[in-house]
Amino acid sequence: MSPALPRTGRRSPALRAAAALSLALVITAPAYAATVGGSAALTTDYVWRGTTQTQGDPAVQAGFKASADNGLYGAVWGSNVEFAPETKASSEIDVTVGWGGALSDDWALDVNLTHYRYPSTTVDLNWTEAIGTLTWKQNYWVQLGYSTEALATDEAGIYAQVGAKLPLNEQVRLEGAAGYYWLDDAYDDSYAHAQLGAVWAFKAPFELRVTAHATDSSAKTLFPGLAGSRVEAALQASF
Known about the structure:
The chain is built from 3 helices and 14 strands. The protein is mainly β. It has one domain (13-238): Beta Barrel (Porin). Mean pLDDT is 90; it is low at 1-11.
């Protein structure tokens, strides 16, 4: 989850303060009420919102999440990246704090702040985004993201996505999503993307995922060589 093109910008004090408060709430939750999990993946390409973050090269990714019984959670996720050579960007670390829980038997909500960090860069690419996801029956979702420093700029950006999972049997499911990224303030343009994938849970906790991605012509203009049509395959595990 990273900017496809490097930009510099101011950091939002309000977002930093909210992130610190949420993290403090997670840390101070009773130890006996917390659960810890994680994930790991090896993928042929790191694709985020339709654009490659590794110039089409493979990526190794891993994450950990600690959740309290009251729904508060904190998570850390990392991946290798490859941006323009002058940025010297080689790694990404995402720190997330938020709350997730059931609203009813069918509906669930997740709200969080995600801070994207690039510790190896020579320019400031770090930025923060507020994200909310509403899920119905665990298989359908609507997501909205907002940042006052979209893609490490000084400008606002809004991202929206709708998606669905279709289980074919106990081991195989299809997943599809379509998104739109409003970046008019930051880049004087916006773009759409879509993805369709198949997931095979061949042996717990391992899954094999193959996903086809496509973007519109605006994405190709905004991110030359990084957007367009591409297919990625990943071996992933949750624990």
